[in-house]
Amino acid sequence: MRTTIACERCRAQFPEFGFLHPDDLEYRQDELSVVQKLRLLVIVAVSHRYSESYTADINNKNILFIASEVQKRVTSGPSVALIQTFLILSLCNWGDGDGFNAWMHCGIATRMAQGLLSTGFASCGKRETLSELEKRTLWTCFKMDRLLSCGKRRQAMFSDGDMHFSLPVNDTQFLFGQSPQAAPIDDSLKVYGSDDHLVLLIQGLRIWSRVHTWIAEGGRRQPGMTEPEQCPFNETSDWSKMKQDLIKWRQSQDALMKYPATKVSVHAQRGQAERFGYINLVYYVSLLFLCREFIPFSPVDEVKPRGPIEPPLLKVRGPDSFWLQNVFDLYDAASQISSLLSDLEHVGCPLRTPFSGLCAFSSTLWSIYGAAFPNFMGFTPSQTSDADSQAERTMAVYIQDAMGDLQLSPASEPHLMHRSLLTRPETVTSASGVWITLSSGRKILDGCAGAAVAIIGHGNTEVRDAMVEQMSSVSYVHTMAYTTSSAEDLANYILDGEPFDLTRAYFVGSGSEAMDSAMKLARQYHVENGQPQRTKFVSRRQAYHGNTIGAMSMGSFVARRAPYEGAILLDNVSYVSPAYEYRVRKDEETEQEYAQRLVDELEAEFQAVGPDTIMAFVAETVGGATAGCISPPAGYFEGVGKVCRKYGILLILDEVMCGVGRCGTFFAFEQDGDVRPDIVTTGKGLGGGYAPIAATLVHRKIIETLKKGTASFNHGHTYQAHPVSCAAALAIQKIIRRDNLVTRAATLGARLHKSLVEIFQDLEFVGNIRGRGLFWGIEFVKDKKTKTPFDTKIRFGVKVQERAFQLGLAVYPGSGTADGKKGDHVIVSPPLTITEDEMDELLVLLKKAYDDVAAEFS
């Protein structure tokens, strides 16, 4: 049992162990030969690394003992079991960062395999009829040999000429005995599928082997390589043929196999990050080695690339476009290697092998080269800085590793607790305007401003300077005893003229805190107003009001509530229908009739609960994360306000996501007639992402009531009205007003709405488009006629978001749209500073993302 578990664990962790078969390991131990027992021991030792009881010292001693015993059997003659044992040992050494012993043990296995190939395996004497087990063992020798060789010091031993037999069959056929379909190497993808890592890696390594051998034998300095027919821009040259084969191999791969279009985290979730990493490293390092061969070591005063300037010189210069493309491909390959290695680190799958070390060194060398010769490379100052940082980042990891500062155990994980415990999010290195730059160098168009947060875009220097100035004078005070000018000025600025009789602003750190503050204010108001029996709230379904216990209780995001339902969430909240025209309005209803029906439903709920027991009705003016920008019908909030006033119930409007100008007016409710909320919460756009801040804005009547009672608000936070956050928010609000960004949101929003309808409305899986200003949601459905949502397992909206991200666009996905459980949407909510050209690019990328996902279901 233990050996079977060990075998399964090894196969799961290492694609290199593809030759392991359960049937080959399920003999009774007294029936095994010594070599077979040693093979079992090394399998158990390797699998033990992934058990909770793993102890490095003991395991290392076991590996050393097995290595010693196996080496004694070398002179007894080769066998498949002995070859496999040396290969597993090699992988073990590889994982420990012991490149020399890994290469040595792989070399022993390779020489044995070559010997058996020349004399015939035990099963037969002809290589064309090799057993599947033998075939897989040979291919593993070839693959390991290529990954471990690093030039003349550690040369490759297995030549392409030795590999004339077909590829192994896929795992299902191998493990369960289905009839194999032999296929030549060049046609293998048709047999094994585009995601077969073994096939792809072997194909790539064959090309890398040719490139590596050509370079090791002198590359462009070989005899005859300066002749016109061998110049790299000649399509029949050796160099060009290798590059053509490399590109052909790349093009044959499925999109999911290509980095950076597909993130490492996608494969990490499947336990395939290492395989994905090696396939892409083979491609990029092969491209880098090919391109670097014709780059001058020291271009001196060269302005444009024009081929080698050190002997031997080419006899034909070639077109300038070729040399420019060569430089571009070289640096792109170096950049992608650096980013890929970094991303593998982030998902907890660091590569520590001679091959990855060679890739890291080569990437770093040419990043340093780019920083040293920016004119030659055609770099901007920003690209020069990025190249320098990239080199420093890549080598820092490998230098630390060489010094023994890093633990290479699989348990090496980040200490920051991310939302997912399996994958890390992308690392952002810089952001400016509507563009975000990742550590990989990729640029992302921020089409959702985070979560409708970055209202004036990223990297605004005015806001930065205001924050620095505030920190230079007062960085923090406790509001129980002190106030600051930045907090006072911000409150006075946004409530100048007391709009809608909102007279006080209470500043906190997040929208959730703002909602909790509003709930407490409502309760305290009624207590001090002589109505302590009011203990209940009414909210709406498909609503989201925050993530703290109080705010989550007010919302109805079913998936987020589920773990806490019946345990810690409040039970004094009831819910009515949302103003969700697409799903709630009846076909025969006019807009006025629909609005009145919703108001009547609310009044009926008040009566059912007991109107004198209700503190407040809470609603998002324009629905946000859960419902995807649903907008109320005309007259709805006017009617809601009248019903609330009729029963003395407070009206709390949540504008954390939709407020501060995003919908085309400063308050979103300004577009809904004569609406007078008692409390308004704002947040995301208030601080624009530059600092955490939100606000609870309070009506005059509440303040006057509290003044007559305790004359205080029984609530407080350590970072309440934080001076630096208030300074940032004040600078942002001044920019919004000065640059007329609220009006701009209305104007650009009309253009965005028109474009969304023209491009998306008639598409097969688009059910509804709704929103205001620069706050729009697209709801996806499985069936347009019945409005049936997709099954939750399909995650259609998330797939659109993920594909958009691969293409370079960020949008905000949502689920549970239809009923709190089912339904998908994405939100488009770019910074109010987005240009029309950037908006057009956003639409193109979003349409492409939708098309790619929809193609799976059409």
From TrEMBL:
Q: Which GO terms describe its molecular function?
A: DNA binding; pyridoxal phosphate binding; transaminase activity; zinc ion binding
Q: Which SUPFAM superfamilies does the record associate with it?
A: PLP-dependent transferases (SSF53383)
Q: Name a biological process GO annotation.
A: DNA-templated transcription
CDD domains assigned to the protein according to its UniProt record, in alphabetical order: fungal_TF_MHR, OAT_like
- List each copy of the Xylanolytic transcriptional activator regulatory domain by range: 102-174
**Any GO CC annotation of this UniProt entry:** cytosol
- Superkingdom, taxonomy of origin: Eukaryota
Query: Which SMART domains does the entry mention?
Result: Fungal_trans (SM00906)
Pfam families per the UniProt record, alphabetical: Aminotran_3, Fungal_trans
For this UniProt record, the keywords arranged alphabetically read as follows: Nucleus, Pyridoxal phosphate
Q: Which family does it belong to?
A: Belongs to the class-III pyridoxal-phosphate-dependent aminotransferase family.
Q: PANTHER family, from UniProt? A: AMINOTRANSFERASE, AMINOTRANSFERASE CLASS-III
Q: What is this protein called?
A: Xylanolytic transcriptional activator regulatory domain-containing protein
What species does this protein belong to? Fusarium anthophilum
Q: What is the lineage of its organism?
A: Eukaryota, Fungi, Dikarya, Ascomycota, Pezizomycotina
